Amino acid sequence: MIKQEIEDSVAYLQNKGFNAPEIGIVLGTGLGNLANEIENPIEAHYNHIPFFPLATVEFHSGKLIYGTLEGKTVVVMQGRFHMYEGYDLQDVTYPIRVMHKLGIKKLFISNAAGAINLNFKKGDIMLLEDHINLLGGSPLAFKGVSQFGERFVDMGNPYDTEMSNAIKNIAKKENITMHSGVYAAVLGPQLETKAEYRMLKIIGADAVGMSTVPEVIVANHLKLPIVAVSVLTDECDPDNLETADIKEIIKIASETEPKMIKLFRELLKTL
C-alpha cells in the first residue's frame, strides 16, 4: 500500500462530490439499510473507485454512499471486506484510510456476531468495549507503515469512551437491550466448532465474528475515535448447538437492524 493509491481513491471520490464528510459508518452483514436513509445521496460503487477492493459476499452490496444524516455529512460503507474473501489485512482496512483522508473525524462500525456469553440472546445488541484479535495478523504489519502513523499503536482503550457512554444512554432511553462485551475476531468463513466456542468463552469473549478488529486497529493508528456495535444473530452454546443457517443469521440481523439504525441516528444527534 502506498500513499499515492489512497490519494487517487480520494481524488476520484472528491470529484464525485464526497466533500469533507464528518462521520464514517461501516455497515455489517445484513445491516445495509441505514444507507437508504441518507439524504441527497451520492454513490460510488467499489469497482469504480481506483485501487478499492471488491465485495465478493452476496449480501454485501459494495458501494460508498455520501450524504446527510441527522444534519451530519456522512460517508457509509454499504458492504465491507473480509480476510475470508482472500483479501489481506491492508485490503480490508483500505477504505478506513480513504475515509480518513476524505476528512472523517469519527467512525461508527456495525457487525453481525454470534453470542458466546449465554446471558446474551439473538436479537440483542452488544456494544464493543474491547476485543481479541484471532485473525493471525495485523493491518499495521507492513513495510512503510510509519509513513501513515506511529508503528507501535497503544490499544489499551480502542473504543471511544465518550461515544460509548452516549450510545449506552441512548439504548436505555429507547428501551433497547444493549450489552457491553468483548468481541473476538476469527478468520472464518466456516463457523466455529463446539470446542472453539468453549475456548472463546474461556479466553473472555462475549461475541464472535469475522470482521471489525482490523478496521478498529487502523482507526486507532489514525487516531480516529470509534464506536462499534454487534447485532447478535445466533447463540453459540456448545452444549445445545443448533446447525448454523446463514439465511437465519441474515434474517435475525435484518429484524434487529432497526434498533441499530435508531442507536446510530440518535448518536449522530449528540455529536
From TrEMBL:
Domain of life: Bacteria
Known EC number: 2.4.2.1
An individual GO BP term: nucleoside metabolic process
Pathway: Purine metabolism; purine nucleoside salvage
Lineage: Bacteria, Pseudomonadati, Bacteroidota, Flavobacteriia, Flavobacteriales
Nucleoside phosphorylase domain location: 22-268
Keywords carried by this UniProt record: Glycosyltransferase, Transferase
GO molecular function list: purine-nucleoside phosphorylase activity
CDD domains: PNP-EcPNPII_like
GO CC annotation: cytoplasm
UniProt similarity note: Belongs to the PNP/MTAP phosphorylase family.
Name of the protein in its database record: Purine nucleoside phosphorylase
